[in-house]
Design a protein that fits this description.
Elements lengths: L2 H11 L4 H13 L3 H12 L6 H13 L3 H17 L3 H16 L1
Helix pairs in contact: 1-2, 2-3, 3-4, 4-5, 4-6, 5-6
Length: 104
């Protein structure tokens, strides 16, 4: 059973598990299903408590795919969320990535 199949099997029992959904989004991206991956990242960023790593990973994926403006949007939305959640490390990483994108 592949990692993707394992994650989907676990999600059948726990469909709202944030970490499993995040892992699925990462696996979908790795497998080239970027649209489905992005849908999951978006879902995670709109959760009652937004999942901060989803903002950053979505931005990285979109930048890699040449969708720079969409990547910037995830970063500019994610940075204040990270700060609100007290995650200064993630806010800093996203700020640095945003600067890098802006400079290129």
């Amino acid at each position: 059973m592949s990692r993707l199949e394992q994650i989907r099997k676990m999600l059948a029992d726990e469909p709202d598990d944030i970490f499993l959904n995040y892992a699925l989004a990462l696996e979908l991206d790795k497998g080239g299903d970027h649209d489905s991956s992005l849908e999951l990242f978006e879902k995670l960023t709109r959760a009652n408590t937004p999942y901060v790593p989803a903002f950053f990973m979505a931005a990285q994926m979109l930048n890699r795919l040449g969708k720079v403006e969409e990547a910037k949007k995830f970063l500019t939305d994610g940075i204040p969320v990270a700060r609100e959640q007290g995650n200064s490390h993630a806010a800093g990483e996203m700020s640095e990535f945003l600067e890098m994108i802006n400079d290129s």
